[in-house]
Amino acid sequence: ADTGSVCDWLPSELVTKHHLMSLSSALREVHFPSSLDAAEQARRRLAFDELLSLQLALLARRNLELAGHKPFEHVINGPKVKALIEALPFALTDEQNHAAQEILSDMAAPRIMNRLLLGDVGTGKTAVAAVALAAAADSSTQAAVMAPTSVLAQQYAQKIGPLLSLAGITWALITGSTSEEERRQIELCLADGSLSIVFGTTALLSDSVVFKQLTLAVVDEQHRFGVDQRTALRKKGQGVDLLAMSATPIPRTLALSLYGDVDTSRITKRPKAGAGVTTKLCVPENLDQAYAAVAEAVQAGHQAYLVCPLIDPSDSEDELEDVPEAARTNGKLYSATRVFEELSKTVFKDFTCDLLTGRLPETQKDQVMEKFRANKTQILVSTTVIEVGVDVPNATVMIVFNADRFGLATLHQLRGRVGRGDFPGTVYLASNAKRGSTARKRLVALEQTSDGARLAELDLELRHEGETLGYRQSGGTTLKISDLYADADLIEAAHMDALAITAQDPNLTSDAYATLGIEAKDRFGIYFEELGYK
Predict the structure, then answer these.
(1) What is the helix, strand, coil percentage profile of the chain, to 5?
(2) Exposed/middle/buried for residue 481 (C-beta within 10 Å: 0-12, 13-18, 19+)
(3) What CATH number has the domain spanning 277-449?
(4) What mean pLDDT, rounded, does the chain reach?
(5) What does DSSP assign to residue 120?
(6) How far is the C-alpha of 154 from the C-alpha of 170, rounded, in Å?
(7) Domains 79-267 and 277-449 share a fold
(8) 199 φ, ψ to 5°?
């Protein structure tokens, strides 16, 4: 095959800088390798091309998102920030203080903030976000906090709301279950500026929600929202700063491949550790032991979760999390409705059980959670709707049925729901995964480590390649050549190169970079389509 006439779209200085093979040689070696080493060098060259295209596309998308928006420079050392910090029932840790300062510096700077706050379950991200909200109030502007579920939005309002009130900051909550009259009143106050902070779900994106001056958007569990939803919230103001928060541990290489040019703050230590959690693998024949542990905990005055992958027995497997086939087992799948019907009448008939799934109407979901928080319900059967942010310190035991059908990050989040108070928690991962299988390895890893960052790296290693981009929102393109685990050095290099190139030529139209721009758009045009640019 003649590859000699192939036009190399990568600038020669980058080829030299990273000791890459020429494009024509790489194409030849990929098809007709002269040695194993040459074949790997060819793959790395093509992987770098792909990763640089992705980084350029992500940066271009960010520039398009922010185009025409004038940044707002917030007041960051005003009386409300000071009052809020004093109102906190604890002193911020060094890490929390550092993260808060990074966020406040961004908010005061003459550029639009795009920051991701990463912190494992229980590291105190909420308190840090509250400081940012107070800065918006000090600046006489408004902030919105958008959560993926009404349960979580409500919990934010319950946790942060009283602190805001103590600092003299007005706030409200809008979810699908807010009455029409209350909602109309909140919308009026947002429009006239008398309301500073609003908590809510995607209900905040409704056309009827209009802000007098929105300058800060806080989005929780960012990977659950599509790019278009974050953009829609930002469009409700001019030059809105974005603070995205996630307890889903994401390795840096994955963060770069998902978000491109995003500044990251990390909190790694828990301010108040809670009593902690023990994770145990449980084969089907030992389920009775797990049931006995639930009964014992409830008799001692505590509460328990039973988590299932499906809502109804008739649900399709297609609705399950995208766990690679090699990392899961096939067999009977548990559904929340059936587990609730069967166990509440048999094993747990002496206890108060309830059912929580994503299909319940919002008002009913709120009622179910309220009863569980108040300890009127002892055992809650649910799906992963409880995965994010649910805070019931009295819950000490959890059984996760078909544990191998959940991603590692989800399982790590789920177990963060128990052992949050003064009593230790136990999580039983029920699975029939065979010894030595990838499925079993993933579950053993959870049994052995509670370090979210380590688990994320392991998930990346076990999943490899494009499957990892299951984290990617709204149908993004998966990578075809690069491997996020093996090519970590190339991802870092491509990211730095993309920043340098776009600083010189933001639109990639100069002679030096025009072909690069065309290549990036050809490969990752989906990012532009999401924003309405064809």
Answers:
(1) 50, 15, 40
(2) middle
(3) 3.40.50.300
(4) 86
(5) -
(6) 16
(7) yes
(8) -105, 145
Longest dimension (CA), the chain: 78
Cβ–Cβ under 8 Å, residues 198 and 144: yes
Q: Report the alpha-carbon angle 318-323-328, nearest 5.
A: 100
Kindly report, residue by residue over 213-242, the tens digit of the pLDDT.
999 999 986 556 556 677 789 889 999 999
Instruction: Kindly write down the DSSP assignment for every residue of 432-492, as one continuous string.
Output: -PPTTSHHHHHHHHHHH---HHHHHHHHHHHH-TGGGGGGSSTTPPPPSS--TTTTHHHHH
| φ/ψ of residue 490, rounded to 5 | -70, -35
The answer to whether residues 197 and 137 touch, using CB atoms and an 8 Å cutoff, is yes
Partners of 395 in the beta sheet?
Answer: 303
Contacting residues for 235 by C-beta, under 8 A, at least 6 apart = none
Domain residues of the chain, as ranges? 12-68+482-530, 79-267, 277-449
- Which CATH code fits 79-267? 3.40.50.300
Residues 127-156: tens digit of each pLDDT? 999 999 999 999 999 999 999 888 889 889
What are the C-alpha distances in Å from 45 to residues 38, 341, 484? 11, 56, 15
Which of 25, 60, 57 is CA-nearest to residue 44?
25
- CA separation, residue 257 to residues 54, 335, 487, 500 (Å): 7, 34, 11, 17
Quote the pLDDT of residue 467. Answer: 40
491, 49 Cβ separation under 8 angstroms: no
> Tokens for 504?
């010189």
Tokens of 39: 């074949």
Q: Are 14 and 33 in contact (CB under 8 A)?
A: no
**What pLDDT digit, counting tens, does each position of 360-417 carry?**
988 898 899 999 999 999 999 999 887 666 789 999 999 999 998 887 878 888 898 8
